[in-house]
C-alpha cells in the first residue's frame, strides 16, 4: 500500500511539473540580425533575464529584412506567445503587426528603435537624437581644440535605419551650432551590413581625399569606416567618430585616430525588456520609456570596456 501511495505521489508531482512547464511563459525577441555584436549582446542580456525569471525566450533573426519582422510577429501571435520584444528595422512599417499583437492581448516592448505613435507598451533604449547631439557637441569641441577649428566630415550611415538617421540628424545639428568651420561632404549608405559599409567607406575616402573626419552611425558603419581608414593608410589625417565599440575601434582609440565612440548598454537593454514583460505578466505596470544611458568612450575611459573584447 505504501509503495502504491508513493507511486501515486510521484506521478502527481510529475504531473504538476509537466503542467508548470507547459504553462511557462514564452517571450519572443524579434531582432534585426545576428551579425552585429550589438544585437548579440541584446540577445545575451535577454537570455540572462529570461533564465533568471524562469521563462522561455525564442529569438527570430530577420537578417535585415523588414517584412520578415512583420511575418515573425504575426506567427508569434498565432502561437500565442506571452510577450514580444522588437528591435525594429522599419519603425513605421511594423506598426500594424504591433497593433495586431495588442489586439490579441500580447504586449510588445520596443527596444533600441522607438515606434512613433505605436501600440507597443514601452520603449527600452537610448534617446538617439540626443545622444547624436552629444557626440556632435564632443566633435565640435574637438575640432576647436585639436583640428584648428576646421573639419571636412564624411558620414557612413544606414539610410534604412530610422534610429541611425536620428543619430545623424542630432550630430549634424550640434556640429552646425558650434560656429566652427565644419563642412559635410556626403553620406554613404552602409545598409547596416559590414561588407556593404566597408565598400561605402572605401568609396567615401577615395572620392574625398581632403576629408579630415568620418562619423559612423552604427556598429557595421564604424567597422567599415575603421577598416577603410586602415586599408588606405589614412590614420594620420582622418579622425573617426561613431557608435558601438568593437575590437577594431578600441585599437584605433589606442592609436589615437579613432577619437570618440558612443557606447550603449545592449545587454542592459535586453535585460530590461524581458524584466518589463515579466512585470506586466505579473499584473504590474512599466514606464512608457525606459531610458538606458550611453557613454562616450575616448582614450581616457576606454580601459573599462576592454574586457568586452577579450
From TrEMBL:
CDD domains found in the cross-reference section: PBP1_ABC_sugar_binding-like
Stretches assigned to the Periplasmic binding protein domain: 33-282
Keyword Signal among record annotations: yes
Any one GO molecular function term: carbohydrate binding
Sequence similarity: Belongs to the bacterial solute-binding protein 2 family.
Pfam families: Peripla_BP_4
Keywords in alphabetical order: Signal, Sugar transport, Transport
SUPFAM superfamilies per UniProt: Periplasmic binding protein-like I (SSF53822)
Phylogenetic classification of the source organism: Bacteria, Pseudomonadati, Pseudomonadota, Alphaproteobacteria, Hyphomicrobiales
Signal peptide per UniProt: 1-24
Intracellular or extracellular location(s): Cell envelope
Cited PANTHER family: D-ALLOSE-BINDING PERIPLASMIC PROTEIN-RELATED
InterPro entries: Peripla_BP_I, SBP_2_dom
Principal subcellular localisation of the protein: other
Official protein name in the record: ABC-type sugar transport system, periplasmic component
GO CC terms: cell envelope
Keyword Signal (UniProt): yes
Amino acid at each position: 500500500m505504501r509503495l502504491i501511495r508513493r507511486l501515486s505521489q510521484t506521478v502527481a508531482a510529475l504531473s504538476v511539473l509537466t503542467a508548470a512547464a507547459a504553462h511557462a511563459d514564452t517571450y519572443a525577441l524579434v531582432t534585426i540580425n545576428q551579425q552585429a555584436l550589438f544585437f548579440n549582446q541584446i540577445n545575451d542580456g535577454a537570455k540572462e533575464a529570461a533564465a533568471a525569471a524562469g521563462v522561455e525566450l525564442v529569438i527570430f533573426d530577420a537578417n535585415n529584412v523588414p517584412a520578415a519582422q512583420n511575418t515573425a510577429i504575426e506567427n508569434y501571435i498565432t502561437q500565442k506567445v506571452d510577450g514580444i520584444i522588437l528591435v525594429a528595422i522599419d519603425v513605421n512599417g511594423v506598426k500594424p503587426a504591433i497593433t495586431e499583437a495588442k489586439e490579441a492581448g500580447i504586449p510588445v516592448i520596443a527596444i533600441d528603435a522607438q515606434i512613433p505613435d505605436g501600440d507597443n507598451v514601452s520603449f527600452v533604449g537610448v534617446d538617439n537624437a540626443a545622444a547624436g547631439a552629444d557626440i556632435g557637441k564632443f566633435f565640435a569641441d574637438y575640432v576647436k581644440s585639436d583640428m584648428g577649428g576646421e573639419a571636412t566630415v564624411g558620414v557612413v550611415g544606414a539610410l534604412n535605419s530610422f534610429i541611425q538617421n536620428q543619430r545623424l540628424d542630432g550630430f549634424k545639428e550640434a556640429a552646425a551650432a558650434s560656429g566652427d568651420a565644419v563642412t559635410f561632404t556626403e553620406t554613404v549608405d552602409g545598409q547596416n551590413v559590414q561588407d556593404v559599409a566597408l565598400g561605402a567607406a572605401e568609396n567615401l575616402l577615395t572620392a574625398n581625399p581632403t576629408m579630415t573626419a568620418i562619423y559612423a552611425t552604427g556598429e557595421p558603419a564604424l567597422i567599415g569606416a575603421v577598416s577603410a581608414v586602415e586599408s588606405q593608410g589614412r590614420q594620420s589625417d582622418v579622425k573617426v567618430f561613431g557608435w558601438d565599440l568593437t575590437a577594431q575601434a578600441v585599437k584605433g582609440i589606442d592609436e589615437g585616430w579613432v577619437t570618440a565612440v558612443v557606447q550603449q548598454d545592449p545587454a542592459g537593454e535586453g535585460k530590461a525588456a524581458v524584466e518589463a514583460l515579466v512585470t506586466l505578466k505579473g499584473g504590474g505596470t512599466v514606464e512608457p520609456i525606459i531610458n538606458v544611458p550611453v557613454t562616450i568612450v575616448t582614450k581616457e575611459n576606454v580601459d573599462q570596456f576592454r574586457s568586452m573584447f577579450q
